[in-house]
């Protein structure tokens, strides 16, 4: 367990909280995100691609959401800093074909993402996964290390199979939480729900139209502490202080098994970490991506 890395991350976060991100004008070659279907391994995935010739960052959406989650809150910030931004609806989500298969490398989100990169002739990309997208981001980094530049995981339990994580999740589970009529009660923090009604409504709109009945895809291989220890990419883990599903203490446990990782905490933010405070979230990620 490497607690010293997490201590250094506290200083890293403190600088960002008071900073205002100076956005550049859109770089040459970058356009408004264009949506198109990309056929991979028996599926048609709806993908948003900003284009451009900059370094690529791939956004992997949560189980409650789609590529649209990132369209207004992340794409402008990253394309404004010269990145090519890419996000796809996974199988059974958003506009993609509602077919999900057992993960065998052909139907996993990691496998599909690499297939999309191949179609677009992208050799390497940084990958950012939030919540359920974090499961796939870890899976991708472990199974396809040569395709990953840097790895960012936000507000995710990682779907780690080890008993320590499973016991933690059982201990913090709130009876009846998943039976509530709106996912907003478990995904969005009380502060956000109280202060940003329009934002809550927009999040619920995207979440409601994002899903079919198919079950989420599994990982190519199960996520375990041992598997995390093989990840070679520089990794940033971002935890929300008001996250009911993946609180910072839980994320610290699994993140400590990634050799080159750091953890940053965002106070008063719930499970929808990139949605609730996009400016702060984006600044943290961009600062990390700028580091050697």
Would you mind describing this structure in some detail?
The protein has helices at about 5-15, 70, 75-80, 110-120, 130-145, 165-170, 185, 190-195, 195-210, 225-230, 250-255, 275, 280-290, and strands at about 35-40, 45-50, 55-60, 85-90, 125-130, 150-155, 235-240, 260-265. With about 290 residues, the chain is an alpha/beta fold. It has a single domain (about 5-15, about 30-290), classed as Alpha/Beta hydrolase fold, catalytic domain (Rossmann fold), CATH 3.40.50. Helix 5 links the parallel strand 5 (about 125-130) and strand 6 (about 150-155). Helix 1 crosses helix 13 and helix 4 (about 110-120) packs across helix 5 (about 130-145). The longest helix has 15 residues, at about 5-15. Keywords: Signal.
Which key phrases capture this entry?
serine hydrolase activity, Pimeloyl-ACP methyl ester carboxylesterase, signal, AB_hydrolase_fold, 292 residues, alpha/beta
Quick take:
By secondary structure, the chain is α/β, with parallel strands linked by helices. 37% of the residues lie in helices and 17% in strands.
User: How would the global form be characterised?
Assistant: globular
Within CATH, the superfamily carries the name: Alpha/Beta hydrolase fold, catalytic domain
Write the CATH architecture name.
Answer: 3-Layer(aba) Sandwich
Largest sheet: 8 strands, mixed
For the record, give the distance between the C-alpha atoms at the N and C termini, rounded to a whole number: 24 Å
Would you state the CATH class?
Answer: Alpha Beta
Average pLDDT, rounded to a whole number, is 88
This entry's quaternary arrangement is single chain
- Number of helical stretches of at least 4 residues: 13
For the secondary structure, the number of strands is 8
Order of helices and strands: HEEEHHEHEHEHHHHHEHEHH
Structural class: alpha/beta
* Count of the domains: 1
Q: How big a fraction of the residues is strand? A: 15-25%
Rg computed from alpha carbons, rounded to a whole number of angstroms: 18 Å
What is the CATH fold-level name?
A: Rossmann fold
| Strand adjacency order, main sheet | 1-2-4-3-5-6-7-8
Low-confidence stretches: 10-30
Helix content: 25-40%
Keywords: Signal
InterPro entries: AB_hydrolase_1, AB_hydrolase_fold
GO molecular function, one term: serine hydrolase activity
Protein name: Pimeloyl-ACP methyl ester carboxylesterase
């Amino acid at each position: 367990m490497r607690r010293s890395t997490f201590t250094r991350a506290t200083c890293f976060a403190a600088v960002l909280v008071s900073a205002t991100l100076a956005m550049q004008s859109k770089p040459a070659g970058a356009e408004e995100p264009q949506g198109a279907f990309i056929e991979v391994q028996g599926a048609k995935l709806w993908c948003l691609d900003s284009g451009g010739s900059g370094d690529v960052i791939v956004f992997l959406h949560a189980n409650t959401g789609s590529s649209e989650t990132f369209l207004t809150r992340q794409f402008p910030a990253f394309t404004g800093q010269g990145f090519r931004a890419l996000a796809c609806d996974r199988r059974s989500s958003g506009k993609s074909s509602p077919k999900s298969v057992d993960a065998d490398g052909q139907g996993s989100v990691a496998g599909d993402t690499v297939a999309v990169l191949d179609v677009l002739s992208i050799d390497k990309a940084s990958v950012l996964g939030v919540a359920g997208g974090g499961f796939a981001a870890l899976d991708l980094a472990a199974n396809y290390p040569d395709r990953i530049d840097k790895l960012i995981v936000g507000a995710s339990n990682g779907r780690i199979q080890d008993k320590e994580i499973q016991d933690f999740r059982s201990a913090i589970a709130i009876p009846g939480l998943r039976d509530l009529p709106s996912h907003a009660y478990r995904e969005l923090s009380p502060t956000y729900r109280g202060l940003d009604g329009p934002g809550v409504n927009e999040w619920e709109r995207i979440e409601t139209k994002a899903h079919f009945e198919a079950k989420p895809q599994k990982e190519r291989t199960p996520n375990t502490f041992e598997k995390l220890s093989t990840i070679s990419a520089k990794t940033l883990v971002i935890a929300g202080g008001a996250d009911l599903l993946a609180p910072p203490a839980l994320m610290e446990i699994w993140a400590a098994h990634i050799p080159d990782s750091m953890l940053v905490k965002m106070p008063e933010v719930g499970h929808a970490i990139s949605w609730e405070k996009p400016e702060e979230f984006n600044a943290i990620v961009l600062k990390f991506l700028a580091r050697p």
